[in-house]
Each structure stands twice: as structure tokens, then as C-alpha cells.
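Write out a record, focusing on structure:
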Amino acid sequence: MIGSIRGKVIRTEGMTALIEVQGLGYEVEVTGQCLPLLKTGEEIFLYVHHVVREDAQLLFGFVSFEQRALFRELVRISGIGPKIALSLLSAISVEDFIQAVAQDQVSTIVSIPGIGKKTAERLLIEIKDRLPKLNLGLKEGALNVKANPQNNQALIYKDEAIGALVGLGYKEQIALKLVEKVYQEGMETKEIIMASLAEISRNKK
């Protein structure tokens, strides 16, 4: 799994950036907030979400760890695909999104292209329980939870486990669900992988 990319910007077209790394060009879908930072001929560093499909491999780039973490939670919500999640993160900052969730601002979410009222309502309900588990710079009192810096490391362990499962031939969405199902606080990469494989074995019986 590709977790980040550092290289020279060759060109941008729409919401796609072509970034050269040691002679290889990677096409990366980015948010509108990222576009102004992409200067042709200059180096850029982006956090990356890597999607592996039967017909393609897709890269989505973000200027901050928090943006990527929020993107990953958004695409797990029914009706929210990568394009809509990118649109949301282009239209609103992580901080403003947290505020919209805390205040149940359906109108703010509906104003984002591609999101209807029912989807917005479901998104607000589902994401509210997930935000405290992420390190999104939550201030004390936001969503009645104080962010825990240790969540950064937990996300890294989860990402590594998902990458390992994908490498073993499992689809990313299946790997994501497995890791979320078996993960317990304090687990490291190897433990998550072993627990996931054990869960697969139990389901085959």
C-alpha cells in the first residue's frame, strides 16, 4: 500500500496531479484545497490513500494526515464514494466539518455537490461516533471528546495490516472491514493481521 508520495509536479489537469518519483509518474486525485500547492516543476509531499481494484489502482492525495484520516472514514459510509468525499474535503476544512457534525448542520453538508439531504443526515449520524476515534485536532469539548495523540499510531498499524491483507490477495474493502472488526485498543500490526486471518478461518467453517 502506498501511504505517501514525495516528488516533482509534472502537470495538473482538473483535480488530477501527475507527480514524478524517481522517473515514474503517478496520477493522484487531489482535493481543491490541495490544488494551489501544486506548482509545476516543484516538489510536493502528500499523504496518500491507495485503492486497489480489479481494473485499476487509484491514488488520492491529501495535504494533511487529518484530511486523509477523515477521507477514509467518509468512504466507509454508505452512499459516500471517493469522488463525493473528495468534493466534501474540497469544499470544507476538517475543522469546519467537525463543527458541522457537532452542531448537526445538515444544510452545510447538503450544500456540497453530490450530497442529498438523506445522505447528509445519515453521514452526520454515522460519522459522529467515529470522529472521536481519529486524531483530527479535536479541541477539548468538541463532540464531548478530547483527541488522543496515540490514535495516530493506531491508524498506522491498521493501515499496515490492511496493506498486508491486500498483498495476500484480499480486496481492500474486505480488508478494511476485517481490520475494523478485529481491532482492539493496543494491538500492533502483526496482532491485527493474525486476528484478521483467524476471523477469516472461523468464517470458512
Observations:
- The first strand starts at residue 4 and ends at 13.
- The chain has three domains: 4-62, 66-137, 151-199.
- Strands lie at 4-13, 16-21, 24-30, 43-52, 57-62.
- Residues 51 and 57 are 6 Å apart (CA to CA).
